[in-house]
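Because discrete structure vocabularies remain unfamiliar, we turn briefly to a single example record, giving the amino acid sequence and backbone structure tokens:
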Amino acid sequence: MDFHREPNTYVGHVRIKVQDLQRSLQYYQEVIGFQILERTDTSAKLTTDGKSSVLSLEQPDNALPKEGKTTGLYHFALLLPSRSDLANIVRHFAQLGIRIGSSDHLVSEALYLSDPDGNGIEIYADRPASVWSWVNGEVQMAVDPLNFEDLLAENHQASWTGLPADTVMGHIHLHVSELKKTEEFYTKGLGFEVVNRFGTRALFISTGKYHHHIGLNTWNGVGAPPPPANSVGLESFTLILPSDEVRRQVVSDLKQIGAPVVENGDAWVTTDPSGNRILLQHA
């Protein structure tokens, strides 16, 4: 998974808000296959390898249900190491009677579902980058039906043992209020490259010619407002930059375009034009 290590910039961690931490922990352990790395009364860090965390849960005071037609999380996406891992989790969901959506994106094969609060989750496996098709600088993606018969012909794992240890946060997909200033923020400010424009209401961006590290859409409406601070949904996500030198340059670039950026402990924190909070760390 060379697209999720230096010299690329990629999403390393996502923090989401939930209404009932205990309910969510049960779901993320039993259904999705995480383990708990750390826990307090109101938060938990989840892990697949027992050492690092790619997803955290937070229960705010007086947490509100997810609100529609706002900016924020569309879904976070867990990238599995192999296609056989994807087949294994399909069998696991079937045994539990979990309803899922699915799609063949040409560059990847993906499953879609939502946690008990309506936070969107994608679980996917990439096809080899050598078979991705690029036309005029854009990677070709689609929303074709997933061939489950072919997928389930993959090697069968004897029993479900949870998410593979080397599962990573493959990408995040966000609802935003508009695309022009958003594109400037992510490209001129954060250094991403647009690799696919999906119609007029979505674009996909990456570094290192990945199919996308971040998706951005206005499907909740142009001008959509941010949700309340204590609403279920995205709290923040962390970008891992390849070095402190690159991070300093990104901070400078963000200031140059007038984006907010402040130092907070070992990270710099910025907010995109739609209110999505981003922590900037380096590898």
